Amino acid sequence: MKRSIFLISGQTESVHLSVSDLAQPHWSEFSWEWTSHDGRYSEIQIARAISSRLVVSPPFTEYFSCSKDFDVTVKPKFECAGVFLLVRANVPLVKIEIFATKITPSFWPSFRLGSDVSVSCEVSSLPDGATLQWERDGDSTSNTTLFYNNTVHMVIRSVHPDSQGAYFCTFRQNGTLLYNVSNAVRIEEVSSDATLTMYRESSNSSPVTLFCKTSDGYIYASWSWTPLSTAKEVHLVTTTIYESNDTFNERFSCGDFNGYYFPLYFSPVKFEDSGRFNCYFENLLVASINVVTLKVSAVPPSGFPKNHPVALRCEVSQVSTDPVTLAWLRMEGSRGLLVKQDILTESHPNRTLSVTLPSLRRDQLHWQCAVFTEGMLRVTASLTLTLPTQTKMSSTTGMGTETVVRGVITMAATLGILGLLGFYCRRPNGTQTQRQKEEPAQLEETSV
Question: Is the peptide bond before 300 cis (omega within 30 degrees of 0)?
Fold first, then answer.
């Protein structure tokens, strides 16, 4: 007998491995064996029958308990996942596999307007043909997710009223839905003097939206920016109700101010945009948002010869008081494989992470640099490399038209010279010799 069971880590109900219909009271010798998904235990005996009664081994009472007859109760903990075998006389009778899912955070609170929401969904084991992903109303959210180490991370950027609703972590086997876990996003509709930090990729496709909203009405509002590089405050835009002034430059724009709501947009995002953005309603600071930028590059960027080393570089603009993990991931489809990572702190001498490839292979073209804080994904930056072009071969098949023409001309000239030399090298005889003495020599026309 084989079957699978799915549990959510932290749920209130335990899982029962029921085999009462198979176990017999007169069985004097059988046991439960466990191979954990996390690799800590392999075919370890967790319980055995003594005098027709099931007894759990003392080291595992934290995870398992006995129920009636010969059933085992598995507590809803992530580390309890694995393969369970009911064995009698060294013969497996029943095989049950428990897959555990862990959502972080397990309970979703209300999120502040304009904040970035980072969540993750981890499964204890992912068999061949299985997929794990975040979905919303049946649609995948691949543009904001990263699958790495049996965990699918998702970042909901700048949450606003349209972001609210249910999000599902789905587990599918060969396209068939086996189970899902849902959580709801709810937001606080006012900024509430919020101090937020958001991470953005430096690229043309990573726009930034900064929200600023209050429950009280005001006459005028403004946005200012203090770049990290200069620490000098710059006024981006000042507006009165339903009337806007010109913004700082063409990359920045703002929505209509109605006395309550005043968003700021800018795109494309440059690495130098890192800094603090403040929103004021009259003289009241309503929102303060720290923007951290991330950029990636390759050296040389393109046109490098075959078998030439390539250096990948990832840089984050700043590191806050919390440690920041930078990680280079080589992408195989939607799955990321860790190549290198480093933990940065405020005292760290640099804010970069580099990887050198001795030579570029076809399976090394797609990369992502990811930023994690407290184990949660904050932002990714993608980098796609191209294989070097093949050098021209010097064989005849690789020659261009110009090369062939030059070859023909050279050959013709060579044959002509050889013909002339052959004429001069002929030995004259008889009458011709006497004539040469009396008359000047005349050249004969030679065709090649």
Answer: yes
Q: Which residues contact 277 (CB under 8 A, 6 or more apart)?
A: 210, 223, 224, 225, 236, 264, 288, 289, 290, 291
Neighbours of 7 (CB within 10 A): 23
User: Per-residue pLDDT for 79 more than 50?
Assistant: yes
- Predicted confidence (pLDDT) per residue in 184-205, tens digit: 999 987 766 668 999 999 988 7
Give the pLDDT band (50/70/90) at residue 360: confident
Q: Tokens at residue 77, please?
A: 């903990």
Q: Are the beta carbons of 223 and 278 closer than 8 angstroms?
A: yes
Rg (CA), the chain: 37
CA angle 281-285-289, nearest 5°?
115
Q: With H, G, I as helix, E, B as strand and everything else as coil, classify residue 360.
A: coil
Single-letter amino acid code for the residue at 315: E
Asked if residues 53 and 47 have their Cβ atoms less than 8 Å apart, the reply is no
| Residue the block writes with tokens 């009911």 | 86
CA distance 336 to 334: 7
Amino acid at 158: S
Q: What percent of the chain has pLDDT over 90?
A: 47
Predicted confidence at residue 139, as pLDDT, reads 64
Nearest residue to 329 via CA among 379, 385, 382:
382
Q: How many residues in the chain? A: 448
Query: What does residue 8 show for φ and ψ, rounded to 5 degrees?
Result: -105, 120
Cβ atoms of residues 324 and 373 within 8 Å? yes
Query: Which helix (H) or strand (E) is 367 found in, with range?
Result: strand 366-373
Q: Output the pTM of the full model.
A: 0.80
Beta bridge partner(s), residue 280: 222, 285
What gap in Å lies between CA 243 and CA 255, rounded to an integer? Answer: 10
Please give the span between the terminal C-alpha atoms of the chain, in angstroms, as a whole number: 92
Q: Is the omega angle on the peptide bond into residue 268 within 30 degrees of 0, that is, cis?
A: yes
Task: Decide if 30 contacts 48 (C-beta within 8 A).
Answer: yes
